[in-house]
Amino acid sequence: MSQLTLLRHGQAAFGASDYDQLSSLGQLQAQATGEFFYQRGTTFDRVWIGPRRRHRFTAQLALAEIGGAIPVIDDGLDEFAEGSQLLAGAEQRTGMRVLSDASIPAATRLRLYAEEIRLWADGSIVVDGVAPAAQFRATVADWLRRATADTAPGQKVLAVTSAGVIAAVLCEVAGLPDSALAHFIGVIGNASLTGVVFSGKGAGLTYFNGTGHLAGDLLSGI
Q1: Residue-level pLDDT at 150
Q2: Are 158 and 134 in contact (CB under 8 A)?
């Protein structure tokens, strides 16, 4: 059996004009993950990363101590949408100016953000510039097939990506419907680790959303 470790990027700049960067907390999360790998003697035979800066920076920090394979960038590991796209969709749907009105409470903004993901996942809405859930999942499934087919037995693979991709991999492995994407996306923590074992006979989940390598003050969900 081979092992696939899925690492969600460290905390990004949610609500900022440029979301695609690691916050100071996100940098600490990625560094702590790298220290965890180093202390356990964990190395990876292959490394895949998504195309975003937050993916690349997380990988750089997490792999700084252990080195290893040169990361392969793959669009199949890209997130289904940026936060600004989802909030713009929520704004159009509800009439609330969640993008431009600073007086709207953060809790309200997060609620509408999560609601937009749920409606997108179950196919109830179309979000401008965002692929439907089924299409997004098919893209991730294609990457998963390529990544597992190209891996020799017994190898360890790391993929640094986003919550939506990890959720899609889980749905593929467990045979769950697209609507389940929203639940997983909502609980996957920053810099969390999810494990999948695979062989020519199939794949199975070994652990999900592990954050035990992070100190309590490094935990975050968005």
Answers
A1: 81
A2: no
Which residues, listed in sequence order, are joined to residue 204 by a DSSP beta bridge?
197
* Rounded Cα distance, 74 and 95, in Å: 36
Q: What domains can you pick out in the chain, each with its CATH number? A: 2-79+137-214 (3.40.50.1240), 81-130 (no CATH)
Is this prediction's pTM over 0.90?
Answer: yes
How many residues does the structure list for the chain? Answer: 222
DSSP-based helix, strand, coil % in the chain, nearest 5: 45, 15, 40
DSSP state of 102: T
User: Distance between CA 204 and CA 197 in Å, rounded?
Assistant: 5
Closest CA to 197 of 146, 161, 148: 148
